[in-house]
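Thread: "does anyone have the structure for this chain?"

Original post by V.I.:
We have the sequence but no experimental structure in hand. Need at least a predicted one for the grant figures.
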Amino acid sequence: MSRYALVHVSDTQFGPRHAFSSPSGIARGIAADVQSLSQKLSFTPLYLLNTGDITETGMPHEFDDAYAQMDLLRSALSIESESVLHVPGNHDMCWPLAKVGREIGSPELKYQNFRNYIDKWKSSPSVVLDGVTVIDDHRYGMRFLLLNSCIKEDDLFHGGAVDPAALLRAIDSGRGRHKSANYLKVALLHHRIDTASPDKTALIENAEEIEAILVTNGFHVVLTGHVHESICQEVKKGGKSIIYSGCGSTGVQASQRRDGVQNQYTIHIVDLSNGTLETKWRAFNPQARTRYGLGGWTRSNTAEDGDNSFELPSTLGPSKWTPSSLRDSNLETKVGIYSNPFTYSNAEKISADLILDLFVFDSTRHQGAIRLSGDAIIRGPRGSGKTMFLRYLHLLGQSQFRHDTRVKRTAECLPVLINLSRIHKADLADSAAAFRAAEQVIFESVLAALQGEVDSTQSPELRQAVFRTKERLDVLRNQAGTLISKLGTSIKEHLRPYFGHILLLIDEIAPLFPKSFFSDRDSGFVAWMNNIRNAGPFCTRVTVYPNDASDILNEERFGTIVNLEYQIRSDEEYTAFRDYSVNVTNRYLRSVSVDPESPVTIGSILEVVPDGSAADALEQLIYASDGSSRRFLSLLDRCLNRRVSGESGEGLSKDAVQSIIKEAAGNLLTGYNLTERELASSISKACRKQSAFRFRFPNESVLLKPLYSAKEEFNIIKVVDSRPGPSGSIYEFSYPYCILMDIQTHFLKETRRVCTSRDRFSGEWISTITTVTRDTLDLFTKQNRLSGEIVELSELCAMLRGDQGNEFVADEVPAGFSCGDAVTFLATEERYAFDLHRLPK
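Reply from O.Q.:
Generated one for you, tokens below.
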């Protein structure tokens, strides 16, 4: 990963004066904005940073709202819990507790609610209550310095300060852990310390002293909050430069911002290859039309061109991650591991050194593609391990190639990872353009991989062969033929002694390309694949989703079909996934075990009893994961956090695991708007009456779509069987949502009585499919229809004006509706309109 991002929010101030209501719905909009930019600018979100004033008054319910939204944002961006870092702000100090603390001689009592909030993250490095904390990330060559600038803040004194002695001690301690001088060093605090600023009111009282310490110790970036507008400047002192950046206020009401200043957050993109820090300033525009309604995040109007770019000193790229770099004393004491290994939600974030150790080979599924020769189509839903598999093949093939090159033997293959996300959407206008763009990415990726092996192996013979290959390509440049065919010709002529073929590892092809790319036989997917195979020494591994746009991606002629999907309600599939899950968990735990001779196992986290017992906690995690390894590991992350925070020294019980699953579902639900939540709740009531979790809702797929397509593998319902026509598709609620809403999933064996324990030992899955209609749902029967007209219509949403003059936003508008149409509709208190019907003219 050469481009990663630090997402910076500040002054969210969840509470009565929060700009996005209370409870808030801010996370989904920011997540959508970051995801859109990550595709456009080719970066991976790595850290979520919050520089204080998380709440308005430091009360528990405000922190509850903050946690729900920040965790939702973290999850949507696939950021690990340990990579969410916080520092406190003056609004996070609870004044009533501060007063009591002063009276009883306990000054730290003011931190109590903030401390409880931090404990929910179970990321002990974020606790900076005693002054200063240093966090090193040796994977990407970064050091974070978390500063508590609220050590004096209470109900009587309002001002910022940092303890210089604590700062020096922390920096010295950091030197002891790792002596690298060229890490990117980032400091976080709430108040400002940039003494060059003309506004001195927001500075901490000892700003000059703290600034001098940071500059002397080589800190490059200081991220702050407190001031409700953006700041950005590079200051040079003593021959060194330091960048001050404050993102403004992400969540305060307009009354707390100067006229014209928007709500803001920033995305800091670190480019390792170019040695730059790019800051993208984002701001909330209440007039923007989005699929979530009125209001969206756009380019800020306060920074020139909306962003800044700075040169950075040389920083380290990904290196071998070692458990000792991220030790957690609680985990060592209670579980026997150095750190939480389940925070990696994305295979791209796991270091190369760990991939080979963590990868689990399931002979029933990987057999058809585990080899380094031949072609294969690898099918599986999101989170099933497709990218992990490609990375494993890449490292395995790369290791063999380098060994064979050293001993002067022809390697089986040279593996090349193909990142199709590099293709810009402008280059996908039609199938012919997509063909050329995809071919160009493969061409450039193969040449880059060859040069990388030259640099790695330091083989003079390979260097000469690659040089002659490039010379041959220059000769062929202006001749007829495709780029791939020319590349194949050059490789066959000059690189045959080094490897038998190039293994192209192509990840997630279907979501990127237009549907026409798969239906066009002349210049689409078929022509592209035939071009690769006919060009010469190329084999392919292509990953696809089970329900991708074209059946072509499931045809054996493009390679062996490898299915990574588990149907866990089948006894055989359940057993296979259970064995796989235990193996995965134990490998992750072994990588961080304090005692490698006697590594920690899954039994230290959960009460794992022999299969066939109603008390098995692991069974519940398997059901909640629905066969997704990524979701399984995400839930294990929560379980490990609960295990460490508990008093018992034993694994979590089944009841404890079910409460964790319920909590996860509740957090996920906050990402849906009120209409979507009410629709799901109304259907769940109808399902409970019929003792079913599967249902049909004929002719209402558009209404249901946000519930099964918006969150990928974390949707609260999924399509079981897509059927057009009057009978309708079959849907089912996810297992976590069933637990949250008390929807029945099991009957006692050979009865129609509900099995409340939800287990294989005493129960069996309910197969009943109930049909719901508008007439059976409270959402439709207990509301009066409103009437009005469509006054504005875009691809994302529609604006409606009711007969009383009130305006409403509709996320989903049926096809064929036009601006000016008279309609009837239902609406929520938040003025979301749904269920639109056009009135006859």
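V.I.: this helps a lot. DSSP finds 22 helices and 29 strands in the chain.
O.Q.: and Confidence is low (pLDDT under 50) at residues 176-180, 315-326.
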